[in-house]
Specification:
binds pyridoxal-5'-phosphate, 2 domains, elongated, 8-stranded mixed beta sheet, Lyase, Ornithine Decarboxylase, Chain A, domain 1, 8-stranded parallel barrel, TIM Barrel, alpha/beta, about 30% helix
Amino acid sequence: MLSYHDQRLWVEGQPLRALAAGMPTPFYLYSLPALERRIARLKDAFPHAWLTFAYKANRHPVLLHRLASHGLGADVVSLGELRAARAAGVPANRIIVNGNAKTRAELEAAVQMGVGLIQLDAAEEVPRLADVVARVGREANVGLRINPGLDMATHPHLKVGARGSHFGIPPDQVLATARAVTKTPGLRLRGIHLHVGSQLTDVAALEVIAQEAARWYRTLRGAGYPIEVVNLGGGWGIDYAGTGREIEPHEVARRVAQAFAGEAVRIALELGRWLVGPVGMLVVRVVQVKRAWGRTFIAVDGGMNALLRPALYAARHRILPERQGEPITPADVVGPNCESADVLARDVPLPPLREGDLLVILDAGAYGETMANTYNARPLPPALVLNEPATTPEA
Ligand SMILES: Cc1ncc(COP(=O)(O)O)c(C=O)c1O
C-alpha cells in the first residue's frame, strides 16, 4: 500500500503529494483495495460465519458500502449506527445491536426493523425490551452479552470483560437472565456474546475467549436453552508497531474450530480495528518546527481533534514523512490543541522538516475518523478514498 519512489511517498500507486494537492489537511486517506484484501482474508478463513463490521470503528459511507456489498453485517450501538448500516445496504437480519445503555427509542427501532440479534447487556434490560416488544407487536431474537471476568493483556481502557467492568452480564447472573428471557413473551433466546477487549495481539487470547464461549455455550445448551449463535465479538489486534506480525484469520479459525469441536454452532464476529485500521491513515501538514529544551517539536495541523487515540489510550502510531531525507533524528510530533496530551508521538525518527511538509500517521482507519471531534473549534477532517490501484513506477 505504501512505498517510496525517488524519496517521495506513494500510496496504492499514487504520489501522496498529488493526492494531497486537492485536500485540506488534516484529512483521512483510505484505500479500498487494501480493505478488499482484508475482507477477502477474513471471508476465506470464516466462510460460514456471521461476519459483521463494528460500526464504531469507521463511519465512511464508501467503506461501509463496500463492507456491506461483500456480505458483512453490522454491529451497531446507537440509532445513528443502525441507520448507517441500513443506508449502507446491510439487511436487517445481519445487524447485531449492542450497547450497555440502549434507549427505548433505540430498542424500538431495532425491533421494528427486525434486526438479527439484540444483545442484552444486563438482566435489568429484560423488562425494558419486553415492554418495547409488546408495544411494537414484533418478536425479537436475543443474545446475552456475558462478561466472563477475563483480564486481557491490553490497555486498561480497552478491557471490557474483566471483573468489575460495567459491560455485560456477570457469570453469576447468566442462567437467571437466560431464564427471564425465555419466560418473556416475544423474546427468543438465540445467542451468547463475549467481547472482552480490543487490540488483542496474541492469538492465544482469542483462543481463551473461544474456549470460554464454548464452555458457556455447552452450559446453556445443557440447561435446555436453544443457543444457536455464539458471537465472539471483535478485539483482533493490528500491527501498530510495524513488526510484521498480526492476527492471522486462519489461525483464529483453527482455534475456534477446536474449541467448538463437534458442535453445530453458528459463529458470529464483530470486527472493527482488524478490518479497517490498516487501510486508513491521517495526513497532516507541518505548521512549525520548534527547537526547545534540547528537543525538536514538529507541530502539525491535526492532533487529538483529528486522531484521539494517542491522547486517549497512549496509542503509538507510526509516522512517516512524505519526503525522505537525511539525517534522521528523533522529534516529537505534536498537535495544535491547547492540551499537554496533544502529542501524536514522541521520539519519531524523522528527516529535517519544514513548514508545509506532509506527514502520514499510519493505521488510523479504525477509531480515527469516528472519534474525531471539533475541540478548539476545528473542523472535522475530511476523507479521501482511493479506489483502484494505479500502476506503480519502477522502483
Ligand atoms: C461489543 C463490541 N464488539 C466489537 C467491538 C469491536 O472491537 P475491535 O475494533 O477491537 O474489533 C467493540 C469495540 O469496542 C465492542 O465494544
